[in-house]
Amino acid sequence: MAMSSAPKKRWRLFLASVGRRPALYPLTTPPIGLLYLAAYVRSRHDLDIRIVDQRLTNCTYEELARQAVAFGADVVGLGAFSSAAYALPLVTRRIREGLPKAFLVLGGPHVSAAEMRALDGNCADAAVAGEGEIAFDSLFQADFDRGNLGHIPGLMWRDASGEIVRNPGLTPLIDDLDMLPMPAYDLIHVQAYWKQQSMPPIPRRRYISMVTSRGCPYHCIWCHKIFGKRHRAHSPERVVAEIEHYRRDYGVDEIEFLDDTFTDDHDRVFEICRLVTQRLGAIAMALPNGIRADAATPDLFAALHDAGLYFCAFPLETGSPRLQEYTGKRLDIPRFLGNLEEAARLGLLTFGFVMLGFPTETEDELQQTIDTACESRLHLATFLTVVPYPNTELYRMVERQHPEKLAGLDYRDATFTYIRVNLTELPDNVLFAYQRRANRRFFLNPRRVARIVRDYPKPHLLPLYLPIFAARVTKGIFG
Description:
Structural class: alpha/beta
CATH superfamily of the largest domain: tm_1862 like domain
CATH architecture of the largest domain: Alpha-Beta Horseshoe
Oligomer: single chain
């Protein structure tokens, strides 16, 4: 008589977004990457899953590790930005002490930036760059057995001797995003995010975050290209079905789209807007990650506005045509400004991303960028320091030409607004003086202040934005 096979192990998977919430700019949104990952692997394996977003709970790193141990995890997945990577040695060591047999996997933007170096100095067993769903599924299929990991494309892992190796190939990308289950929002407390400030500068919103596309076809030198160069997207039908699901099951009245290139496929956007207005009437929508504004059209903004769009970020980066070429962004600045004018005319609250301090940038170009932003119809803006992150063309460029500028670069708990680095040939005091003047000129313009008050979606909550407003206006005054 044939022997029955032993029942397959039920795994316990602990997923965490590592990194505490900073006091200044404490922007917090659901960990959408972990939610996609959890939904995918639980659709294919027998799992108990717990997700912890440290930025939401703001627990200590010791407490985060204790939660993983208390859960009794067999597998721990830790996602982090480079600003939180310094905590990975402590967190992984404490988890390893409490769960000596657990398999620890790193992911997130830090791994895409650091690659094999992400495993240096910590106790993690493996690291996945880029999209995690297929690679993580392959780890489960291999039962996390080191003898079976060599076939997983692009995986970085420690072999039996402790040596860090990288498998041939690249982490696989998912071509048909509609085959992914909806993100596992049932595994987190959605309503807790409504009490925190997310990316749009409007607090206390009953929102949920969505990513409806992956991949960016542009060539900006500062970007990681985590999702590859090819634009892939959920179908309009899937996007609207997901919105309906969130409104029905979670009571949301707003969607925050976090795509890098939401408006790249105009036909898709028009169809999404048509289905939203047809089936939902309208729903408040925000695009806080920004759009390729010079590629938009008045008709596109009109359709989005009719479907409920009220907030949109406009990444300018630089007002210098030379630097637009140098950085690979190649933004058509006049078209950008024209479409910004159209969005403002429709009553959208507009937000600009401005970067100061590119290699070779001159004082005239700094002033040109500041003039472009300050004379535009932007309501709000953030003036960012140009920061080189590993595995970007910008980092490689600085490494070749001015490696001394990378010495001492500290990403710990840093933001683009406050990290201190100067990639130009100008003295530090000159560059940072331009940044201070930019903030004050932009935010202390009486006409701009009046437009903010007029167009802010929830005027009674505007005082809650004042700390960020004050921080930008006073930047550099107190050291």
